Amino acid sequence: MSLLRRHILHFGATTLAGLPLSLRAAPEQPARKLVVVMLRGAVDGLSVVAPYGDARYAASRPQLALKAPGTADDALLQLDSLFGLHPALAPLHRHYEGGQLAFVHASGSPDPTRSHFDAQDYFESGTPGRKSTPDGWMNRLLTALPGEPSPTRAISQGNTPPRIFAGPASVASLGLGPQAAQRRAIDEPRVQGALAKLYEGDAQLAGTYRETVEGRREMSRSMASAEHQSAMARGMGDPTADAGAPSARSFAADARRLGQLIQHDPHTQLAFTAVGGWDTHVNQGAAQGQLANKLGALGQGLAALADGLGDSLRDTVIVVASEFGRTVRQNGTGGTDHGRGNVMWLLGGPVAGRKVYGEWPGLDPAALADGRDLAVVTDFRHVLAPVLQRHLGLSDAGLAAVFPGLPSGGGLGQQLLKA
């Protein structure tokens, strides 16, 4: 079986290493969009959005606790009387002040695993605790969304197909780095003719191959348009914990490229990308150090994604999440270990920002999960559900298909998005 055939059957995707506007007419109304950014390796949410107002925070982290807002040059950036944003994420603070950025603290998976592999699988399948789910929740979302399908309706950025997009619906794949825009052998007419003849006897594979070619052409036109506008603006004519995700340091350029592609292709509605490097067991650091350096690069990357989206940010929700959080208390090597509760981020025009949502359980020992971790009060699916329904227009039946077995309630409902 050929590599192309195996990849198509495994992923159900339109594979595109290259990249751009569709020949079809653009939709009359701009499509509402969702971008999911996964931080593989379990980022320390208690440093991202630090509960400086909780007395147990500083006591549990003698070397890792960040200083209260206004007390030092490298202190937290104030969000409210309880929480502050890590100073390395300063590029995003303007979005918070502008009402486009919000957080949901003490959120995560109801499954208690501290295995990177299992927790990432549960987040991407959307069925915590169930290993038998064959597909990813964003692939199920593709089939449940209202509107017409398109070869580039969903884009996965990365070098390997993510679990979250596994399934029968076609997904366009955008490679990493500047070479992602280069032409490949599959773009040559003679190669395309040969492959079309090879698959003409199998209707399913032939259809998938046609979507692959059409998707590559559409993305190529969009990327060319984005590059032209960019040039004009410049005045120019644990490795296993990361699951293959690139580091935060290389994220900014790829994030901007993804944002520009989404902006210039009116058919693109869903996108996924991942950033690795968050498994900070040793020498984590506080306002300076390992974690701060990674968060600084991540903040620049998310700001670049927002800038790349341009006017499309008004109709886009960016969700940032990690598989689980880290321990409340620092360990003996100046780091933190695998924990439970974490913080989810929401960025974009539709977000009811400038607020930290969710019930805060506190860091008192009696309130900690297993006596060591921030408790999970808000199921991550209850953060995503209102985005899928109120923002993307998913029906109740569609939500049940995307997140089967989702418990009722959640408490956030109408709060996360603007009316």
Automatic annotation (TrEMBL):
It comes from the Bacteria. Pfam families: DUF1501. InterPro entries: DUF1501, TAT_signal. Residues 107-135 are annotated as: Disordered. This is DUF1501 domain-containing protein. It comes from Roseateles paludis.
